[in-house]
Design goal:
15 helices, 13 strands, Rossmann fold, 42% helix, 2 domains, alpha/beta
Length: 360
């Protein structure tokens, strides 16, 4: 039996939640799995449908990790456990056992100055596990810079389930919403500084001169939402930018599939960095190429000049010229076709084989 210890799990939404759900689901086809996850409202209906055991741990956040660790330590004493997989170094920090431990790393949670107290805590966990599983080559390099033992690190990209079939009604709704708006740019992500919506909006002001019917679709919510809306207003781009949040998966997928280019030229903001960027892979499944930033792990998800472009997210001219070069002569069509083929390697059925190699 393997235990999966996670702070992020459905029915809560998010990239980490999807990753830990996909990993648990796929591993459960090959091993006995038990998940220890944080309590979330309305989890019962979700948990009942899972093909493995999920134990929820509630209580105030500060005490929850102690309670969870105590439950896991007790469980290990009474059951035959082969190993423990953690979604985060903090998930493993208090688990005292000689069983093999494996820790996933994603980027920003290990990005602390070398020698700082946080860095020491990170290294205390990561240098004492069996394997550290980095989500991209970028995250592996970052971990080595932070002092993690290189021999312990293996790169396994996050997996995705096969793309959902498009819902006909949602596609029709998108077509009636967008009508003659073209070309179509899209970003699906939280509104935070790292995702760099702001510079895409600025580039849009110039792109509007060449493509008067251009539209930029933003799906998500977050701290920067009001600032971005304010910028859109200041630049007189209300006709060109559409905001969506709390929409169904069907509508989200239809909006992606009917777009021409996924744009998320991420940057490093303070310690926050894009370790991989599963959103690029999800867009590629619908034949939509991406523009990503050079800072972070986007180059694992985007094959530069084949399935999209990697640009300097700090350079407005570079963002503008990258978008423009993809729109010119509809270059996005060829890149989109390549992207759809390229993403097959991220299917969970293939990714799980990499996990099986280290667990067996």
């Amino acid at each position: 039996m393997y235990l999966i210890v996670t702070r992020s799990f459905p029915p809560e939404l998010g990239g980490m939640q999807s990753l830990m759900w996909g990993l648990s689901k796929e591993l459960s086809k090959n091993f006995m799995i038990k998940v220890f996850a944080d309590y979330i409202d309305n989890h019962n209906d979700f948990d009942e449908l899972a093909s493995f055991s999920i134990e929820r741990v509630g209580g105030i956040k500060l005490l929850r990790k102690y309670r969870k660790a105590q439950l896991i330590n007790e469980f290990i004493k009474d059951n035959k456990v082969e190993g423990i997989i953690g979604d985060h170094w903090k998930s493993l920090e208090l688990i005292k056992t000689s069983k093999k431990k494996y820790c996933l790393i994603h980027g920003k949670e290990i990005n602390h100055p070398k020698g700082s107290s946080q860095n020491k805590r990170v290294l205390n966990v990561l240098n004492n596990v069996e394997k550290v599983i980095a989500n991209s080559q970028y995250t592996k390099n970052l971990a080595i810079e932070c002092g993690v033992n290189e021999n312990k690190i293996i790169v396994i990209n996050p997996g995705v389930d096969p793309a959902q079939e498009l819902n006909k009604k949602s596609v029709e709704k998108v077509e009636s919403l967008l009508k003659v708006k073209t070309p179509r740019l899209i970003t699906v992500s939280r509104f935070d500084k790292r995702k760099n919506h702001e510079k895409v909006v600025m580039a849009l002001r110039n792109l509007k001169q060449i493509y008067p019917d251009i539209v930029y679709i933003c799906i998500g919510y977050g701290d920067e939402e009001e600032n971005i809306k304010k910028l859109v207003k200041e630049l007189n781009l209300e006709e060109q930018v559409m905001f969506f949040k709390d929409i169904s998966d069907d509508l989200k997928n239809a909006l992606i599939a009917k777009s021409n280019l996924f744009v998320m030229p991420s940057i490093i903001h303070k310690k926050s960095v894009e370790g991989f960027g599963i959103a690029y892979v999800e867009a590629a499944q619908y034949g939509v190429p991406s523009i990503g930033g050079k800072d972070g792990g986007a180059s694992d998800a985007i094959d530069h000049e084949q399935t999209g472009l990697i640009c300097d997210g700090n350079n407005l001219d570079d963002i503008y010229s990258s978008i423009n070069s993809m729109l010119e002569n509809k270059k996005y069509l060829e890149h989109g076709k390549n992207a759809k083929e390229f993403v097959n390697k991220f299917q969970w059925s293939k990714i799980i084989e990499e996990y099986k190699k280290i667990l067996n």
